[in-house]
Design a protein that fits this description.
By secondary structure, the chain is mainly alpha-helical. The protein has 4 helices and no strands.
Length: 107
């Protein structure tokens, strides 16, 4: 619920005040909360995330960076964020195995 409130504030800033950078930073903050939870789950069960998906997300962010006409902070911030997160999570993810089926119950 808090994340939804922050996202609404970010949208208000974007549309009412033209606060693009501040709005983007708030959106990245909200997304970062989800990333922390994903990484926590990944430490408990390294097979819970698809390595292939995160590698594809990283490659997509590289294409997004390469397709930019102007390399500004606002334009680069989100693709670089996704690239860093994707590399980190894909390095932690392991192929699926049925050795530890109850690890997620610790959450």
């Amino acid at each position: 619920l808090v994340c939804l409130g922050i996202a609404c504030v970010a949208l208000l800033l974007l549309f009412n005040l033209n606060g693009v950078l501040l709005s983007l930073l708030l959106a990245l903050f909200v997304d970062g909360i989800g990333v922390v939870l994903t990484v926590r789950k990944l430490y408990l069960d390294p097979t819970s995330e698809s390595r292939t998906f995160w590698i594809m997300a990283g490659v997509a962010s590289l294409f997004a960076i390469a397709s930019l006409k102007d390399y500004t902070l606002v334009a680069l911030l989100f693709p670089i964020y996704v690239l860093v997160i994707s590399v980190y999570i894909s390095s932690l993810a392991k192929p699926y195995s049925k050795k530890h089926p109850k690890l997620l119950e610790k959450l």
